[in-house]
Amino acid sequence: MMTTFNDIFKDAGNKITGIAAAPGLVIAKAYKYIKEELEVNGQKIINIKQALSDLDEAIARSKKELKKILNLARDIMGDKRAIIFEAQMMILDDPILLGTIKRRIEYEKMLPEFIVDDEISKYQKLMLKAHEGYMSERAHDIEDIKNRIIRNLQNKRWISKITHDVIVVSDTLTPSDTILFSRSDTKGFVTDRGGLTSHAAIISRSLNIPAVVGTHNSTLLINDGDELIVDGFHGCILVNPTKKQRNFYNTKIKHLKELQKNLIELKDKKAETTDGKIIELLANVDVTGEIDIAKTTGAQGIGLYRSEQILAEMGDLASEEEQAEIYNKLASRMYPQMVTIRALDIGGDKFNFSEISEPNPFLGLRGIRLLLANESLFKSQIRAVLRASKNKNIQFMLPMVSSLLEVRESKKLIDECKKELKKAKKEFDNNIKIGIMIEVPSSALLAKEFADEVDFLSIGTNDLIQYLVAVDRGNDLVSDLYREFHPAVLRTLKIIVDGGKTSNKNVSICGEMAAETLAIPLLIGLGLETLSLSPATIPYIKKIIRSISYSKSKKLADECLTYKTSDEIKARIEKFFVDNSIKRTRNII
Amino acid sequence: MITKTVKIVNKAGLHTRPAATIVKYASKYSCEFFIQKDGININGKSIIGVMTLAAEMGSDITLTFDGEDEAEACEEIVGYFERGFDE
């Protein structure tokens, strides 16, 4: 009898389970990444010259980071409160402090971060000795700058230490961690925390790297160098697998490769239902490398270019010039296909680089709110997007819109930018389409009114669902309550699709839900005609679309709209898959 | 060498902004500049040093200038203290 996945998992004592966050199978060695380890030790060093140049580099890097923060702090908090950051900036230039640190590195021959820590801590101790209350706050400010220098010193060291072709095992991963690792050919990701829509999950899906997240204790159970099998279909990890397990997975990996080859052959075929309805499939682009994947999987354009990725890749806000160049390249590579650039979506859980701590960032200054509060930042992006639009294949999209006023203010700024460019005799598309993300319940309810004032709507399901059901998708204590098949989610999607149709505007969906195979018949049945998804998932979704009928899907959606619980809805869709003998990838290999 | 004792006259004391301004002024001059308070001697060209001084309204501080341009440095910095850090 043939061995099945169940046989393999049943009695496996070396099994760790979690959430299947990105599909795929891989066997490789574990690399444990322990983050922000600001633990410094007095290790002796031999190469003093290297240590001193490392220090200079870390100081320069810290200055660059702090400068951005300082500018933002001035904009948001005003000059008066920004003085904290200005003082931190001066510390990076403090001749007495830097002189002492350098001399000590030369004489004591110890790791620069040890000396930095020891020297700055002396001042902190003095501050804490004072009776005045504000002095302990000041000691805390100094802690920030100390940690920044140390982090920059250590970052450089561990970046050079990452070995290639490993499975990264970590407590949690930030978007920039994930991008960094993807550059060194990481084979897989395993994390203790995080859910299906945490950024590590999204990015690994888009890069086609198998990932299992929310395992709770894999960093305890896995040692550096252990051999791991990561099964991103079943959310399972096997540590130091037996011969039987390894043989089983080697066969499965072979099957998967063949399947993927077949899927790639779908590249030039349309995403057409069995009864002839054509669906447009676009790509979400998180990292530059994905443009290639989008090309090979047959995406019909870019439905979502997350411009904050520039920030993640450069570690920095880009200037208007730099942005214009990046967008230009993107537009000409995709020409004549359309590219939808989303305005910088920072704040919330994304790149909270302003370091202004908000008690509830998801309900705070993020997306369009942050942009409108930082006019110069926003306008430099608008001008860069406009300049790249001269071949008329760029659209611009506003994130986190919750009121019409925000749309009107943004359009006013766009008009101002157009005038400025005209004056400077720069070419651009005067009729560039402006759209918004629908990801806040208030804008979902007003979809029709929004559609009247913009050119297109794009549903961001990740945020929309989390705001609708009040569940933080990154918090694995509640993330199982984040349900895309919640009846309220379905009904809200219907309101948005109908609102767009009434105003005759295109509605697309660009959240993770569009990449969930189970959701496809439902979304098609609700009337969505454009889906934007991680490029690597396009072939899988195209295969599903080509095996369902629109009329049956519509019936399914209408029926699901009458249900009261997500379990009923999910069971009904699963039945749809069985009744129509549609196979999901995990059941094929 | 010039030594002067000054009083902190503004309400908020020697907080972060005047600390930064003092260091900026001092950096313009080549003379050495030290600040003494409660037996601690701090180099006035070091922001992190000056920030360790907790000086509230009414406290006395001793400033020492030593070098070629000590008179000009003393005039500018002592003036800034006497004006209550322009606040």
Q: How would you characterize the overall build of this protein?
A:
The complex is a heterodimer of chains A (about 600) and B (about 90). By secondary structure, chain A is of the alpha/beta class. In chain A, strands 1-8-7-3-4-5-6-2 form an eight-stranded mixed beta sheet. Chain A has an eight-stranded parallel β-barrel with strand order 9-10-11-12-13-14-15-16, surrounded by seven helices. The longest helix of chain A has 30 residues, at about 50-75. Chain A folds into three domains: about 5-35 and about 170-260, Glucose Oxidase, domain 1 (3-Layer(bba) Sandwich), CATH 3.50.30.10; about 50-160, Enzyme I, Chain A, domain 2; about 265-589, Phosphoenolpyruvate-binding domains (TIM Barrel, Alpha-Beta Barrel). Chain A is built from 25 helices and 16 strands. Helix content of chain A is about 50%, strand content about 15%. Chain B starts with a strand and ends in a 5-residue tail after the last helix. In chain B, strands 1-4-2-3 form a four-stranded antiparallel beta sheet, with helices on one face. Chain B has one domain (about 1-85): HPr-like (Histidine-containing Protein, Chain: A). The longest helix of chain B has 13 residues, at about 70-80. Chain B has helices at about 15-25, 45-50, 70-80; strands spanning about 1-5, 30-35, 40-45, 60-65. By secondary structure, chain B is of the alpha+beta class. The relative contact order of chain B is 0.32. Chains A and B meet through helix 3, helix 4, helix 5 and helix 6 of A and helix 1 and helix 2 of B.
